Every structure is written in C-alpha cells, then in structure tokens.
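Reviewers of the previous submission asked for a worked example of the structure-prediction workflow described in the proposal, so we include one complete record here. The input consisted solely of the amino acid sequence. No template or homolog information was supplied to the procedure at any stage.
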Amino acid sequence: MSKKNAGYSPAFAAALRIELEEVRKIKVRRIEEGIYYLEGDPVPMQLLIPPRLSPENNYWMQHLRGNLKRGNEIEELMKRYEEHSHSRWYQAAMDLIIRANWENVKEEKNMCEALRELFADELRESEEKGLAAGAEKQIISVVCKKLGKNKGVSEISEALEEPEEKIRLICEAAADYAPDYDVDKIYDKLKEGENRK
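From that input alone, the workflow returned the following structure tokens.
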C-alpha cells in the first residue's frame, strides 16, 4: 500500500511534530513504527498513524480506517475475525471497521459466506430495531396529529389502544416541539429518556 493512497504525508507528520514539540511543548516519543506517546500534556495521549503500523504487530489497528479494498483485504479480515468472533474486543473493533468501510463491504460482489454468517444475527437485529423504530414513529406521528386536534391523553390512548402511560410520555416529549411536532426529534428524546433509566 502506498503511503500517498493511505492518506499519509511526511510533510504533515513533520509539521505536526513541530507543532507539538515547539508550540505545545509536548515531547513525541516513538514506541514503534506508527505508534508514538505524546508526553507533557496533563492528559496522556497516544498518536497512531495506521499506514505506518506494522501489519504483523498491529493487524487490527492498521485496519481501523475507512479505505479498505474490496476483495482480498476484506476477505482476509473476515477470516481473521472469525477466529476471534467470540471476543467483545474483536467485535467492537470489527464493528468500527465495518462501519467505516460499509460501502466497500456492501458492494463487495463476492462477499464470502462467512461474512453473511458472521453478521446475519447483527443484520437481523438491526432490521428488527429499524422496524420497531418505524412502528414507534408511526404511533408518535398519530399522537401528534391528535394533539393538534386538542385530544387528551386518555382519548388518544383509547383510540390507539396503547397504554395511557406510553401516550403520556409521548405527549410530554412532544410538548417541546409543538405546534409543528418533529417526529424524529420526539422519538430521539423518548429513546434518550429510556437510556437514562
């Protein structure tokens, strides 16, 4: 892989080092190729330059980028992941890598069966979450229309055959967005409230 294609620029690296050492008074200490400790700041920092990392020692970190090539590179990544798919650390790394390279992964014409199997559960779960979110947004939309017609919580609950508590929470969240009612923002606010519990 050429350094230019990976977005690595020796000039940028030199300018960054000058900025850190001379302006910010932060010492840059090389640990190994592509890994540097930045010392002298109250917050400990590490600088990673993925194109400079050794593939042998830093296979997974080297792939934490958004320009994986279709074909062998993605297939090799899948094979290596399969060996560690039980580990939540590898799952987290793979999730980041796949998200950063979604277009290439999605467009991969010869996507190996292993990839489909590895992500079948996640894809099914994402689809189910999407359907559930769509259904919730539909309920929110209808509640907002009824609020626009000055209907009360009990009346809306009865009409939609939904629990009164659920309708009350939607109405409370919707109040901040009246009279135009942004369904997506109301949904996000409700999800945010659920996550706090």
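Residues 59 and 178 are 51 Å apart (CA to CA). We consider this example representative of the routine output the project will generate in years two and three.
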